[in-house]
Amino acid sequence: MTLRLTTEFWISAYRMRLQLAEIPAFVTSKGDGTSGAVLVKLNTLDGNAKLFHRSYDVDFKQVWCELVAGPENDVDNSISEQHRFDPDLWVIEVEDRNGRHLLDDDGLNG
Q: How many structural domains does the chain have?
């Protein structure tokens, strides 16, 4: 049996890891604390952004995939569209000019 972290716990750990790297992050939409889906918006502060979501690779391992990238307004519109389908959606906005989001770090892919 595999233990799964609650969404709220994972988000707390993610935000702490970002804080330790001095990367600002904000919860812009709070969803279900136990099992809500998570979107991570990476704002590069130049008018562009990327949106990431959790998915699975061919070995059924959780990975973070880019959902959309481009002008920040387009990414925000995509978030709004996703929110219409899933009202329990969490959205975390990460702000980093260098494009760091730490989603590929060990321990954050689950």
A: 1
107 falls within a domain: no
C-beta separation of 100 from 9 below 8 A: no
Confirm whether 101 is domain-assigned: no
The model carries a pTM of: 0.89
Task: Read off the pLDDT of residues 32-50 as tens digits, 9 standing for 90 and up.
Answer: 888 889 999 999 999 999 9
Alpha carbon 38 to chain centroid distance? Answer: 5
Residues ≥6 apart with Cβ < 8 Å to 95:
23, 24, 25, 26, 43, 45
Does residue 100 belong to any structural domain of this protein? Answer: no
CATH number at residue 80: 3.40.1530.20
Over residues 67-93, the pLDDT tens digits come to 999 999 999 999 999 999 998 899 999
Lookup: tokens for 103: 């989603």
